[in-house]
Design brief:
Blueprint (H helix, E strand, L loop, with lengths): L5 E4 L1 H8 L7 H9 L6 H4 L6 H13 L3 E5 L2 H10 L11 H4 L3 H19 L4 H8 L4 H18 L2 H12 L2
Antiparallel strand pairs: 1-2
Length: about 170
């Protein structure tokens, strides 16, 4: 389970808090109260002893129907929205971009997708799909550079730079 995953309470979870459901352990109840549909798992883990404990508790709460995964963190969702209309903008490709074969671009796209999946896990799938739409080097470069701040916000500046280098074969 990725540390950037976000959870929200289900109707059952809201009822469990309201009715002080006795089937929940103290730690489960504390975490359930903390879940608000905006905090990532890594933030929620601050209320626990470790990220692993928070993951285990979230899995238990999901299995019991008290919470559900709600999607990408706001930064990633905003980046995804920004990418929707900007993946095909290569009207003036650079000479270097024009010289790269479609097979080589496809290879670079696969490498970029793997790098992003390794960094963001399942939460990055929407962004990986944007990478997969790239057909030219110019499109790929544009998308990768737009993803750099997203990776930096979700991971670190160093990992963002490593992602760009891996994705573009630098």
């Amino acid at each position: 389970m990725a540390s950037t995953r976000i959870f929200s309470k289900t109707d059952l979870g809201l009822a469990a808090i309201k009715n002080r459901d006795r089937s929940l352990s103290v730690k489960q109840r504390m975490l359930l109260i903390t879940i608000d549909g905006q905090k990532t798992l890594s933030v929620l883990s601050q209320a626990c002893n470790s990220l692993e404990e928070a993951q285990a508790l979230c899995e238990e709460l999901m299995a019991s129907g008290f919470i559900q995964a709600t999607g990408l963190p706001p930064v990633a969702a905003a980046a995804q929205a920004a990418l929707i209309d900007n993946t095909h903008g290569d009207a003036n490709p650079t000479p270097a971009a024009a010289a790269v074969s479609p097979a080589e671009v496809a290879k670079m796209v696969r490498r970029a997708c793997r790098a992003l999946e390794d960094l963001l896990g399942p939460n990055g799938m929407h962004l990986v799909m944007k990478l997969e739409e790239c057909k030219t080097l110019a499109q790929l470069e544009a998308v990768v550079l737009k993803l750099k701040p997203v990776v930096a916000n979700m991971q670190s500046e160093k990992k963002a730079e490593d992602f760009v280098n891996a994705a573009l074969g630098r």
